[in-house]
Amino acid sequence: MSQRQLQKAQTRQRIVRSAVDLLKRRGLADASVSEVMSGAGLTVGGFYAHFPSKDVLAEEAVREALAERRRLFLERPDRDGWRPRLESALSEYFSQRHRDDRGGGCPMPAASIDAAKSRTAATVLAEELARMAEAFETGRDLASPRAPRDAALGSLALMVGGMIVARAVEGTPLSDEILAAATRFGAAALHQLKEAEEA
Q1: How many CB atoms lie under 10 A from the CB of residue 136?
Q2: What is the pLDDT of residue 1?
Q3: pLDDT by residue (tens digit) across 169-193?
Q4: Residue predicted with more confidence, 49 or 141
Q5: Thinking of the domain 55-198, which architecture would CATH place it in?
Q6: What average pLDDT does this structure show over 146-157?
Q7: How many angstroms separate the Cα of 124 from the Cα of each of 99, 103, 120?
Q8: What is the pTM for the complete model shown?
């Protein structure tokens, strides 16, 4: 790769990272190209040298952000099977720290809100959520027993929906209640699914 190609690739990555940051903090649907480029320390004029449209950038940002989240999940120890792995994921997800750290947290809530506004975003999100569900099923150890599909999809749905609502009422006592209730509800559902699997 030539020096020019390397610089272009690095600039493109800066733009994607800026878009990922905006996606996590508030979604990309209402963000402007100017905001994305400003976050990358670049001028608007250079955007179209890297992306044909904001939609294409948004797709790439969703893919990168969710792939990053998937890698983090797969780093989780899973020696004790699928139920403890998913329970610990729910417990960490519904923490006050995660709720309050939009920029460093999970992109799925904001990406889901964006997807409700755009069919293109919905298609990409569906593909990435399917990959995330697969990670929830298998964990890092592909030789260990798989989690039931309902456990994977149900956990994902609870996480996304629960975090959207908890953040929507952030700053009120109800927000903390939602975090705690979602953790307990998810753990109870996983326990029931495990019992059904063993019956």
Answers
A1: 25
A2: 67
A3: 999 999 999 999 999 999 999 999 9
A4: 49
A5: Orthogonal Bundle (1.10)
A6: 96
A7: 24, 21, 7
A8: 0.89
